[in-house]
Design brief:
610 residues; 2 domains; disordered N terminus; binds zinc ion
């Protein structure tokens, strides 16, 4: 076949195999359908490009990490280009125009969906978002569209789709005006062919090797950075099945636990309280040595001898849902047990006759975001609720004190044994929204940090630190309010945070991210993962449980893994169950803390040189 000769029909695609091809064969579909090739690839690669842009924002990435990310983004873009190339071949090979329109429609929908999710939720399509779509009933759907139907993010998505369609029209019209749709130079044809082969090769290798490796992690399916729209959709759909299966497994494991017969040895009435804080890094707590008075009430309790401050606790993740699944479940992360393979500890308490209440100030907070839906689909699954709780809050509040008031108002006649769980908004970003602007809580301001004159420090950053410290002070007030709820009763309270948060502590950055510990990994871990872990005992509990109090005193310097919290709660509650493991109970003589892993990948002990 001579150069420039027109190819048409299936023989064009088969031509390489029929040995009737020359150096322009591979390039021809791209040249012929050039606007389509570029625009289709762009729509599919939009997510990868946005992720890249997002990462560019972050300072202090390690070179190794940048290399890994670049490979991922290039993979996403290569897959998008390969799919666009395949579609161009099909279009070039057939005279049926509707096929081209069908591909353009797919691209427009992909682009619109990406923009909608990205600008409304700040993420890619995740299994959790698909779950929201599949699981919401009509009421919730109406509520969803009432919230997002006219949001700025939705407007951006609509404008993006219209702009995209307009670009298609213009580009196709301009291209149709051109006479020659081929390279005339042999060298150009060969170079372009090599680029196509390399791109397809990279895409195939990326899919075959990298994708299962990157996305195979059972806990990490939500974090699909850098991939193209098609891979993203496949992964998210696969993830939905996995999330559903996992929750189902958790229900089965919890139902099985109902066959065990746990008993509470405490003959007296007893209240065990678990307070789950939010985004609290211990370095900003006075009781952990912070120079400012952020926890005056806890400090007082510590002086009184009622408070036991554990010094060596790290969270396994910097995401609420990933950490809390492993708090609620009885699994041992060190033994590679997944959260969904074991029952929830609340079910064991309920089975042992405890009256279990769950007052969660994050239950409706950002409930349409994947992060929240992710956790809620587990702890508020209809099958789980019956097995695990007696009562739950119906409303959420702007400030945590209102949640405690709501709990107080809703309290029924006292039960002999109680397990009360509070999940706070704590110091969740944006911390300035977390405390009432009253004299009592607006204590710290820019002037408290003027002595800090590190090069990157500005008054704006000092204000962010002040807000975080004020929210921490407010949190101190909340813990006091919770301990006061039970007056002179027989009560023990365990407080923990789901993860930490850095606030310009050692570099010009605040917040948390799981994809970079920064160039100083020890500082990164220290300021995002080291969380407070505190036990408070009422006077009566101190009197009636001298052995436990003694053990608490002796255990505060032991390393603790957050997934062993359930074992400590069993001990504090005097609960006898076949699920109790003394080697995981920080108060037991058999206790042994295994190496703690961060993000399933980093060995905390090794990295910190312990
Ligand atoms: Zn959190």
């Amino acid at each position: 076949m001579k150069q420039g000769e027109h190819h048409s029909g299936p023989c064009f695609i088969l031509s390489p195999f029929a040995m009737r091809w020359n150096q322009s064969t591979l390039v021809k579909p791209v040249i012929k359908e050039f606007p389509f090739f570029v625009l289709f690839a762009f729509a599919l690669a939009m997510g990868a490009l946005a992720d890249m842009f997002h990462i560019c924002d972050i300072e202090d990435l390690t070179p190794r990490y940048v290399f890994g990310l670049t490979c991922r983004f290039m993979g996403g873009i290569a897959v998008a280009l390969t799919l666009a190339y395949g579609a161009s071949c099909i279009i070039a090979a057939t005279p049926r125009r509707w096929i081209k329109y069908a591909f353009y429609t797919i691209a427009t929908i992909a682009l619109g969906t990406f923009l909608f999710i990205w600008f409304n939720f700040g993420t890619r399509l995740t299994p959790e978002i698909l779950n929201i779509v599949f699981e919401t009933d009509l009421n919730e759907t109406t509520e969803f569209w009432a919230t997002f139907g006219t949001s700025p993010g939705t407007m951006v998505a609509l404008a993006g789709m219209l702009g995209y369609i307009a670009t298609i029209r213009i580009a196709e019209w301009r291209w149709a005006q051109r006479q020659h749709h081929a390279f005339t130079s042999k060298t150009r044809n060969i170079l372009a062919s090599c680029a196509i082969v390399a791109c397809i090769g990279y895409a195939v290798v990326f899919w075959l090797i990298a994708m299962p490796f990157l996305y195979g992690g059972k806990q990490r399916s939500a974090l699909n950075f850098g991939c193209d729209a098609v891979s993203n959709t496949i992964l998210a759909t696969y993830g939905v099945k996995q999330v559903g299966d996992n929750t189902q497994d958790a229900i089965i494991a919890t139902q099985e636990a109902m066959r065990s017969h746990p008993i509470c040895n405490d003959q007296d009435s007893l209240t065990v309280v678990l307070v789950i804080g939010e985004s609290y890094i211990k370095h900003h707590a006075q009781v952990y040595g912070y120079p400012l008075g952020t926890t005056p009430r806890l400090a007082q309790e510590k002086r009184n001898g009622n408070l036991f401050v554990f010094n060596d606790m790290v969270s396994p993740y910097t995401f609420t849902s990933l950490t809390l699944r492993n708090v609620f479940s009885l699994n041992s992360m060190a033994m590679n047990e997944q959260w969904y393979e074991k029952p929830l500890f609340t079910a064991i308490f309920k089975q042992a006759g405890f009256y279990v209440t769950m007052w969660d100030n994050q239950r409706q907070y950002m409930q349409h975001t994947p992060f929240q839906a992710n956790l809620n689909s587990f702890i508020y699954n209809k099958g789980i609720i019956d097995l695990c709780y007696n009562r739950m809050n119906a409303k959420c509040f702007d400030y945590d004190a209102k949640l405690i008031q709501d709990y107080k108002k809703s309290s029924t006649a006292p039960h002999k044994h109680n397990l009360a769980i509070f999940h706070l908004k704590g110091q969740h970003f944006d911390a300035r929204e977390r405390y009432p602007k009253t004299k009592l809580f607006q204590v710290f301001s820019v002037k408290d940090y003027t002595a800090d004159n590190r090069q990157y420090m500005t008054d704006k950053k000092r204000q962010v630190i002040a807000d975080y410290d004020n929210a921490t002070l407010y949190n101190d007030h909340i813990i006091r309010k919770i301990t006061e709820l039970y007056g002179s009763g027989n009560t023990v309270v365990l407080y923990l945070s789901d993860h930490g948060e850095e606030v310009y502590d050692y570099r010009p950055r605040s917040g948390r991210d799981d994809f970079s510990y920064g160039t100083d990994i020890q500082q990164g871990i220290s300021h995002q993962y080291c969380i407070p872990y505190i036990v408070w005992c009422s006077e009566k509990y101190m009197e009636t449980h001298p052995d436990i109090v003694n053990r608490l005193r002796q255990s505060i310097n032991r390393p603790v893994a957050i997934d062993n919290t359930c074992q400590l709660l069993f001990h504090l509650a005097g609960l006898e169950t076949p699920y109790y493991r003394s080697e995981r109970d920080v108060l037991s003589d058999d206790y042994h803390c295994p190496p703690r892993m961060l993000n399933d990948a980093v060995n905390y002990e090794e990295t910190m040189g312990r």
